[in-house]
Amino acid sequence: MIFILGAKGFVGATVLAELSKFDECVGIDIDNYDEHIGEKCDVLVNVNGNSKKFLAAEQPALEFDLSVRSVVRSIYDFPAKKYVYISTVDVYTDFSDKKSTAETVEIDNAKQSPYGFHKWLSEQYVKKVCDKWIITRLGGMVGTGLKKGPVYDLMNGEKLWVHPDSRYQYIPTKTVGAVIRYLLENNVENEVFNVCARGTVSLKEVAEMLDVDAEYNSSAEQQHYEINNEKLCKIFDVPETENAVSEYLIINNMGSGTDN
After folding, report:
1. Which residues contact residue 43 at a Cβ distance below 8 angstroms, ignoring those fewer than 6 apart?
2. Is residue 33 part of a domain?
3. What is the CB-side half-sphere exposure of residue 222 using CA atoms within 13 A?
4. Is position 259 within any domain?
């Protein structure tokens, strides 16, 4: 039995659909959380973390509750033989350098963003108290239910809050679900994986795919995310960012509604 915490979210819904092919799953969200408290499971997949990075700087106590306290609570609310924590590449401090973003790198907490530090704290708690665990650090994603981020902004004619020369990795949410399924099927435990696509794409290139102008705010920052994914690539067929984005745009910008 697998419990998926955050099963109605952007990533959680896809993870639930993918893992349901592997085992019996129960989706847990804010509406039914309390009724499942105390129930045991073989695997708890926590996809429930806060993704609003600005909260960590603007409302740190609230973000701590959402990113750290909620993780601690879930460990005891739903006793599991294995805990899968969905974390973020924002735990790193230099997103553009593959040498600085390997899973084994020693992270300098003093240089972490407030958001990344909270996620890192949750990782440490999971490692400390769970006998068997998997931690996946997610980067940029595309897929059904995408409702924010620069790709979404370009698709909906919104101004970018980052410079169009910014480069990111984007992996389909379906692939994220497939990776977690693979790790569970192969009894992987006590390992950390960066789950990011191969290669990068600039927002200017995404705008060209859409045949739109990449309007942006004058104060827009240029970012570069190129996270080390060598560990995952050794065991899983990781897609290319450009292909992932292109396929997503073809399906969703045409309004077909097809899952991707």
Report:
1. 1, 2, 3, 23, 80, 81, 82, 83, 84, 184
2. yes
3. 4
4. no
Q: What is the CATH number of the domain that holds 188?
A: 3.40.50.720
On whether residue 210 sits in a domain, the answer given is yes
In a domain, 258, yes or no: no
The tens place of each residue's pLDDT in the chain, 260 residues long, gives: 999 999 999 999 999 999 999 899 999 999 999 999 999 999 999 999 887 788 888 898 998 999 999 999 999 999 999 999 999 999 999 999 999 999 999 999 999 999 999 999 999 999 999 999 999 999 999 999 999 999 999 999 999 999 999 999 999 999 999 999 999 999 999 999 999 999 999 999 999 999 999 889 878 899 999 999 999 999 999 999 999 999 999 988 754 334 45
**Cα(166)–Cα(69) distance, integer angstroms:** 33
pTM over cut 0.85: yes
Show the tokens assigned to 130.
């769970």
Q: What's the number of domains the chain is made of?
A: 1
